[in-house]
Amino acid sequence: MQLKGKTVVVTGGSDGIGKHICLKLAAQSCQIAIIGRDAGRLEAVKQDCAALGAPRVETYAVDIQDTGALEGAATAILQDFGGVDVLINNAGIWHKTGPLDSIGADMLLATVQTNLTALMQLTRFLIADLRKRDEAIILNVASKSGVVAQGGQSVYTATKYGVRGFTEVLKVDEQETGIRVAGLYQSGTNTDMFAKANEDVPNHIFTEPEDLSDVVVFMLSRPPKIWLHDVRVEL
Ligand SMILES: NC(=O)c1ccc[n+]([C@@H]2O[C@H](COP(=O)([O-])OP(=O)(O)OC[C@H]3O[C@@H](n4cnc5c(N)ncnc54)[C@H](OP(=O)(O)O)[C@@H]3O)[C@@H](O)[C@H]2O)c1
């Protein structure tokens, strides 16, 4: 897809990988709709994107676990931009590693709702509009944990396997439309995701989010006869 001027929705664009995806898309002159919770961080990313050349950036401060609020954000995005070309489902949270019964009931629910339910709901809200484009993309930022079972990550892994399953079925369901669907399955990335869950990991050896975002732009910007369905990025 030729990215210049395209409207891209990025969930979790206020921090980490999503923030760097927004910055790279801004440099490609995309219009960007950024979803996150923290209004201050969203505004900072918006300013940085504008400085990098994004012709239009709007932010939507919602907790994506709240389906009503998420639907409101999707409606506002469609009104503000008049349509969407690319949806990047990226927002996600981590639960501290441990056996299943060490993961609290609230944390289990929040992980499923954020990583999987909200991703499906937002896709559901936007898919009819995406089908109107000659060319549209849904890119789901999953994880290596959507492909490999790693100990202590039962709930997180369940959500990411779920995202992979959802991604695979969307590919089949949308093959007669202009929507192309892809999954990104990356290993550890140097963001604050683990620290937010009080997890101590060797973050400094992990992939840099700036570099991962280059992979995302590469995936989106392939010519019409090339599509990278699944990309695995590992250290
Ligand atoms: N970091 C890694 O090692 C790694 C590896 C593989 C896959 N991943 C996946 O990559 C994606 C991005 O992770 P990251 O490392 O960039 O994490 P991060 O730095 O913690 O950023 C997460 C983003 O998601 C947003 N978010 C979280 N919960 C939300 C909610 N309920 N409502 C709205 N926004 C919410 C956050 O928004 P606010 O800050 O505004 O709350 C933030 O913008 C996730 O799906 C994650 O599972 C990460």
> What best-fitting shape do the alpha-carbon axes yield?
globular
One letter per element, helices H and strands E, the order comes to EHEHEHEHEHEHHE
* Biggest sheet record: 7 strands, parallel
The radius of gyration is 17 Å
Strand order of the largest sheet: 3-2-1-4-5-6-7
- Uncertain stretches of 5 or more adjacent residues: none
Q: Any idea of the CATH topology?
A: Rossmann fold
Task: Assess the beta-strand content as a share of residues.
Answer: 15-25%
Identify the CATH architecture. 3-Layer(aba) Sandwich
- Average pLDDT across residues? 98
The number of helical segments is: 7
**What structural class results from the helix and strand content?**
alpha/beta
Through-space gap between termini:
28 Å
How many extended strands?
7
Ions, cofactors and other bound molecules: NADP nicotinamide-adenine-dinucleotide phosphate
Number of domains: 1
In helices, the fraction of residues equals: 40-55%
User: So, the CATH homologous superfamily?
Assistant: NAD(P)-binding Rossmann-like Domain
CATH class: Alpha Beta
